[in-house]
Inverse folding.
């Protein structure tokens, strides 16, 4: 008898032995796959359940969109963020990366927050970074927006807090030529949350 035949007989006997030792459990829902479903609570009983009817039913149900997430950062859903807020965050991050002034984006009483923040990140090389804006929250009269600066190797996570300027304040600035002074929102604080290998 050849070694190959002997080997296959050994495998067969081992398989048969294991199969006989298995203990099967009873079915949990015995008729689940054989049961004929003729109606669904939300579909008129006079309609026959066909694939077309089920597709039409599914199409009528509102679905929530799925947004990407970054591990350790959170959702990138900015669908409910005012485009003006996104624009200010983009300007702020662009200014940080290009080492440009960004005082004009801050509320007059909050420029100290920019000074502290730039001091805290002075050891980071931000030149080859890009950024992600996360899902914002409204808390205590301010909008809280998480931001991640990354270079692909490391990251710097921080939160930007913005407040909406009062209508009278906006109108008083409309006579100035500097469009950045006419922003409807101003940054009131920046807070570092986390960092990893961004040097």
């Amino acid at each position: 008898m050849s070694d190959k035949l002997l080997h296959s007989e050994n495998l067969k006997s081992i398989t048969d032995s294991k199969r006989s030792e298995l203990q099967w459990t009873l079915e949990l829902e015995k008729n689940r796959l054989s049961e004929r479903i003729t109606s669904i609570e939300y579909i008129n009983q006079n309609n026959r359940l066909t694939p077309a009817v089920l597709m039409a039913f599914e199409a009528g149900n509102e679905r929530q969109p799925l947004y990407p997430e970054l591990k350790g950062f959170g959702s990138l859903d900015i669908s409910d963020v005012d485009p003006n807020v996104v624009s200010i965050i983009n300007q702020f991050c662009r200014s940080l990366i290009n080492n440009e002034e960004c005082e004009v984006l801050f509320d007059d009483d909050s420029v100290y927050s920019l000074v502290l923040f730039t001091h805290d990140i002075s050891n980071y090389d931000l030149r080859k970074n890009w950024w992600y804006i996360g899902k914002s929250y409204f808390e205590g009269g301010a909008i809280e927006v998480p931001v991640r600066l990354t270079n692909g190797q490391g990251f710097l996570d921080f939160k930007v807090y913005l407040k909406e300027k009062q209508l009278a304040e906006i109108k008083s600035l409309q006579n100035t030529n500097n469009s950045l002074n006419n922003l409807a929102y101003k940054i009131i604080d920046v807070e570092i949350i986390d960092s990893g290998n961004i040097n």
